[in-house]
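Let's practice the habit of predicting before peeking. Look at the sequence and jot down your guess about where helices and strands might fall. Then scroll down.
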Amino acid sequence: MRGASISWPEIERERSRLLKDQNEVPMLDLGAGSQSKARTVAEIAQSALKRPRHARALAGLASYLETAVVLELGTCLGITTAYLGKHATSVTTIEGNPALAGHAEDIWRRLNVQNVTSIVGDFDDVLPSLPPLQYDLIFIDGNHRGAALMRYVNELAPCLSEKGVIVCDDIHWSRDMEAAWDELIQENRWSLRVDFYEWGLLTANPSLAREFHRIRF
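Done guessing? Here is the structure:
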């Protein structure tokens, strides 16, 4: 899949549709600190979806790594999931809010993305029950609390393939998240560590020298 196009106009058309959708979605506070009982689909799409260039960057990363198996924590409305699904053999995605998961599944059907397994539930409840797979790319995009980020990384690190990567979203969301990220990049188990500001990348790939880079993207 390396070299495959990462531009998917049909996915962006779905994004445009979501940005106009005024239907309300009941909200569950599973870590991000939602302040309302309901928000419109358009509001969620505006505030929570990865921007097109960042979604394409994740798709490009999956393509470059020739990713087979992806795990995503935080489906939201499924746009980023769709991008990843275009560049992986299989994607397992976990979403705590069943209403959001339902919207995402509708989008995948319209896009004919058939390699996504959607699981609804709290991350802490679902992760222990996942099948014993080796993931090439793990994307953590949920909860947004530093202690939770540390917990998920520690729990999932043994599930990485030899050259697999963990992408931690919103590492500069708060001082709490920044502190967790700063602690993670000090750990000796990681070889390459990259701060893209929007997210951070960690890998224990043994063929890489131990390096840290900061790239504003």
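How did you do? The chain has one domain: 9-214.
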